[in-house]
Write a structure and sequence with these properties.
The protein is built from 4 helices and 9 strands; from the N terminus they run E-E-H-E-E-E-E-H-E-E-E-H-H. By secondary structure, the protein is an alpha+beta fold. The strands form 3 sheets. Strands 6-3-8-7 form a 4-stranded mixed beta sheet, with helices on both faces. A 3-stranded antiparallel beta sheet has the order 5-4-9. A two-stranded antiparallel sheet has the order 1-2. The chain starts with 6 loop residues before the first strand and ends with a helix.
């Protein structure tokens, strides 16, 4: 199944499910839907970043947190995060829920991310085995270096990642 044909869970501002919609349609209409973001830190407290594949439907080629996506219908956010971490980065590790936030970002291609994002942290110090359909590149960076690079080059990073970094 093409990932754009997958369904996302539409939610209210309290993260209560209010329906399902094809992912592309939800992004075209800018409807609030459930998502998750994963941040993995190595034993040097550096964050594992991924560069999104260049042909992603939005934000292609931008740097972002270790992994992010949408839970499937009837899938818990943590289970979805663990699944996508394996699928995108080839990583298995424990995750801990950190916080939630809602954001709304419009993109040049007419799509809108309006997400209730569940943020998970974990530890991983190895080299990921990236899925090239999802990820173009990866690197570890200290948080202060990431924040400086975002200040210097904000257009190199995804909007949700910049919001997450402001909260940690």
């Amino acid at each position: 199944m093409n990932s754009l044909n997958e369904q996302v869970v539409l939610v209210d501002r309290d993260d209560n499910s209010i329906g399902l919609m094809d992912k592309l349609e939800a992004h075209e209409k800018g409807l609030l839907h459930r998502a998750f973001s994963v941040l993995l830190f190595n034993d040097k407290e550096e964050l594992l970043l991924q560069q999104r594949a260049f042909d992603k439907y939005h934000c292609g080629g931008l740097w972002t947190n270790t992994c992010c996506s949408h839970p499937r219908p009837e899938e818990e956010a943590e289970d979805a995060a663990l699944r996508r971490l394996r699928e995108e980065m080839g990583i298995e590790c424990d995750l801990k829920k950190s916080f939630d936030f809602i954001y709304n970002a419009e993109f040049d291609n007419g799509l809108t991310e309006h997400e209730f994002d569940h943020v998970f942290f974990g530890s991983f110090s190895g080299s990921p085995v990236i899925n090239p359909d999802e990820v173009a590149d990866w690197k570890y960076m200290p948080l202060d270096a990431i924040k400086k690079d975002i200040a210097d080059h904000p257009d190199h990073y995804t909007p949700w990642f910049k919001i997450i970094l402001d909260r940690i």
